[in-house]
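Table S7 (text form). Paired inputs.
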Amino acid sequence: MTALFALATSILYGLADFGGGVLSRRSPALTVVVLSQIAATVVLGGVVVATGAWSEAGPLLWFAVAAGVAGPVAMICFYSALARGPMGVVSPLASMAVLVPFGVGLVAYGERPGPVQYAGGAIALAGVVLASGPVRGAPVARRTLLLTLGAAAGFGAVFAFIAEASTTVTGLFLALFVQRAVNVAVGGAALYAAVRRGGAALPEGGWDTIRAAAPGLVFVGLADVAANGTYAIAAQHGPVTLAAVLSSLYPVVTALAARGVLREKLRAVQAAGAGLALAGTVLLASG
């Protein structure tokens, strides 16, 4: 059961990343983040009511609030990077978010990683260097690389905060609802500020484009929520290490979707770099 639900998590996360990247090529990344997270908030609100998760409210929810602040920044960076660069490179590099909880365990909790984890870190960093090589003769823009690494740092912070926000499955539902509600508030404020500075809240086609993209926006939000749910089930019914390793394979799904749907082609050095980043992530999670 653990393997089944963890693999489902990878599929759902990978498809959500692919959908968010595609939508961000047609609409402002902030708009994609806010609208998809509104859908996620509505669904999680229903889950919280149905499970009675409100009874588990407590001081730990402040970690969920912190995750809610970090999440929109990470998602905006990630969707912007996906819109600017090849998904087959961006998604695996963003999976290096595992470095953040790894560092928290090392510094805050005094954990001592084994040789496998040290090797994973070195391999992942080598992947960053190789994956930033040229695509069809042109280098990946430095801005795209920085956005991707910023997204990885933000996602890693979210993982670390959410891990501290609850101790039960129903508590996790409540924490995720609080996180998504804060996501909407922070993302909405950022969108308002961007519009005040002259930015666009709507794509070129206006509301017609948004209406046409509505199914995709809902899918991205729901896939993200479902992935959180399947991961919680996987972690509750078996070894967390196994659940983490199998759930970390989601960039493969994004890369395959980009290749199959968008026909993205990478040079050998970039494919090797993306693969090394993914392999390093798996080693870090499994060490």
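Next pair, protein 2 of 2.
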Amino acid sequence: MADDARETVLIPGGSFRMGSAEFYPDEQPVHERRVESFRIDRYAVTNADYARFVEDTGYVTVAERPLDPASYPGVAAEDLVPGAMVFTPTKGPTDLRDWRNWWRWETGAHWRAPFGPGSGIDDRLDHPVVHVAYEDATAYAEWAGRRLPTEAEHEYAARGGVDGARFAWGDEPYPGGRSLANSWLGRFPYDNRGVGGTAPVGSYPENGYGLFDMIGNTWEWTTDYYTPRHILPSDRPVDAGKRANLLAAASPREGEQIPRRVLKGGSFLCSPDYCLRFRPAARSPQAEDTGMSHVGFRLASDA
């Protein structure tokens, strides 16, 4: 078990309005949700944090392992090489309906080489770790004797006590012309007047609970399976058949059985002209086995 000296914050239990009816269908329905008191990291897990975990355990992330042919039927053996998805800005305007215009599979990309072979993290130790699959995040959590937050916990904490507002700080994305989170400033995906990538944790103002980067910088893993609408507390318990249906809905493509989990918080790629998701209510599906340039995590625990 880790000697976990990370700074955590006690979030008092309470009820809040979860979701939004203003933006994307999967954020609905808006409903009252109760959250019990819990603790959550003040900052996202950094490269330095993850390096200590790997040094202590010898853990190898999903992006560094050989791919299992059984999981990728029809893919040529020579193409089954480790890697991750790396964001690549375009040279100019492009079709925003096709994410493949700015994402590429980079052989050899992983948490220690976030842009591919030849890149490193020596100058990014205080940045959030990225290219971590769900298994990589939960392995770190087990080592630390803690867990990932639920979707409701993350949203509740991200709101910082500002219940019902569009953003963590109010209803305007850039109050007074200020950027209060690391998001895309300019025309996506070619003109960014902001950071252009991850920023060191804590670079932007803390929220009402004293938490940093709950919005923007990187999306963060939660424990919840993604479904195309919120499952309400009043819904009947998830039985085996319903669970199978949820997993089917969470599959990235028809016929695949790799479930998707809910990501929360938005990232440095969120832009009002493409992805207005640097908001507490926003959510995004992510296949459990895929590391990406804009996905990280933080830990939580019961109070």
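The chain is about 15% helix and 15% strand.
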